[in-house]
Amino acid sequence: MNPALSPYLRSLWNITPTLFDITEPQATRAFLSPLGLHLPLRAPADVPQGSWFHAAAAHAAAHLVFSPHRFDPAGLRPATQALVGALEDARVEWLACRELPGLRRLWLPFHTVNLSDTPNFEDLLRRLARCLLDPSHHDPHPWVVKGRQLFFVDDAGEMLALRQPEALRHAASLLGNDIGQMRLQFNARLYQVMPSYRDDNSCLWPADERRADAEHEVASTPQGGAAAGAEQPVASAAQRHTHPEWDRLVPMYRPDWCAVHDAPAPPATASPTVTRPRAIHTPSRQRTTLWAQPDGDDFDLDALVDARIAQRSGQATEPRVYRRTQAAHARETTLVLIDTSASTATVLPTLQSAALAIEQTAGPCAIHSFCSDGRHAVHYERVKDFDEALDATCIARLMALRSRLSTRLGAALRHATQLIAARRGTLRRVLLLTDGKPHDVDVFDPRYLLADVRQAVREAARRHVVIECLCLDPQALRSLRGVFGAGLRHLKIG
């Protein structure tokens, strides 16, 4: 990761998103997640190398600043969804260049187009993107001309027409209908946003793991043919699910490498006394920007322009020309995952009571636990599922958990991610309660499982699932910091 990117983004927009490396060798596309900005290790070979990372980071930051809205994909064909992404990319770049004109010089070298007389759909998207970033560029194709006319108010491209999400969606529908009339083919599975510095646009849509493309999609499908997007029912007996595992030495995934045995927790016979931890606060990270406000943190430039036009036209003006950022009331869905490996024997009561305290303060919540005995036997137990009430039976099952075996953490996190990714919610997160480092009987490299956990956390971010960790062992915090980042906290006893 280029260490200069963080101060670069701070100088542009005064924002500091967390930056992550995407270590999959085939990855060439940046993406945004609730954790931050994920960038590949190297730029594509056919682009200007020196400025690609700055262009990618600046474009993603423009989304963070100017794209608070999530578009509803209902009723949109795949080609129209691609057009929504292309128009929103152009909109945020136009707004960014209005404030920082030098960004246009950064992005334009990547907009190479072929003015063919028989373009395909992807060719037309590239040509439209070039015209919308560079209003002085002339493209004779009627479809591109129409897209430009829908995007700008004037011929010079000095005033934006698509200011509201509804207007942008309508424009994309009109252009998509024309693509259908031209009988141009579109393969949504193979489509990649162009130019290459632009992220994959997953941040523009509600979180849905079925939209993950092949470049980043690493979650497994449960055996038995269950669809990736379907909610998994509570198993009446242990169900076997396979998941990949990341081998840091290759580096690549071992497909279907780990077997997770998912089953309800056994019934309890007694409830032990537990030690209460300090108060646990797990605030939402979600924030929203309010536009056209009577007061706020900064000016809303669109509102300022409208107010000035109204003033010059002799109309009454409303002094709502500010924007304000505030915490959003996110609908949280939380899965609490308890590490019940043998090393937690002395601290398990604290983990149990912490899970109970979180369940009583969070939104829709499930409590699961795990331990492992090699890659073929990762035991995953459901103490309480999302739709269950926290009654005496659930509490008894929670308190009856026992420490045993090992800690194959990556497989457990992938399985938990798969379960919660099917749930609805503005913020979906897995909250891991553990005593420290991952370990298993068939692994002898101490860095192997830690690297796999890091990959599992990034896979979850790609599916818009946040993984956070409450760790009891202060000695393990240093090694886990590089895995969970800002999502790591020390859970103190007492």
Concise synopsis of the structure shown:
By secondary structure, the chain is of the alpha/beta class. 33% of the residues lie in helices and 18% in strands.
What does this structure look like?
With 494 residues, the protein is an alpha/beta fold. It has three domains: 5-206, no CATH class; 211-278 and 330-490, von Willebrand factor, type A domain (Rossmann fold, 3-Layer(aba) Sandwich), CATH 3.40.50.410; 287-327, no CATH class. 33% of the residues lie in helices and 18% in strands. The chain is built from 13 helices and 14 strands. The protein has helices spanning 5-13, 52-66, 78-99, 102-107, 121-133, 142-151, 165-181, 301-312, 348-361, 392-399, 409-421, 448-462, 477-484, and strands spanning 19-22, 31-33, 36-40, 239-247, 252-264, 287-293, 298-299, 322-327, 332-339, 365-372, 378-384, 427-434, 465-471, 488-490. The chain has an eight-stranded mixed beta sheet. Strand 4 and strand 5 form a beta hairpin. Helix 1 (5-13) packs across helix 2 (52-66) and helix 12 packs parallel to helix 13 (477-484). The chain starts with a helix and ends with a strand. Mean pLDDT is 82; it is low at 209-236 and 274-279.
How are the elements arranged and paired?
Blueprint: H1 5-13, E1 19-22, E2 31-33, E3 36-40, H2 52-66, H3 78-99, H4 102-107, H5 121-133, H6 142-151, H7 165-181, E4 239-247, E5 252-264, E6 287-293, E7 298-299, H8 301-312, E8 322-327, E9 332-339, H9 348-361, E10 365-372, E11 378-384, H10 392-399, H11 409-421, E12 427-434, H12 448-462, E13 465-471, H13 477-484, E14 488-490
Parallel strand pairs: 1-3, 5-11, 9-10, 9-12, 12-13, 13-14
Antiparallel strand pairs: 2-3, 4-5, 6-8, 7-8, 10-11
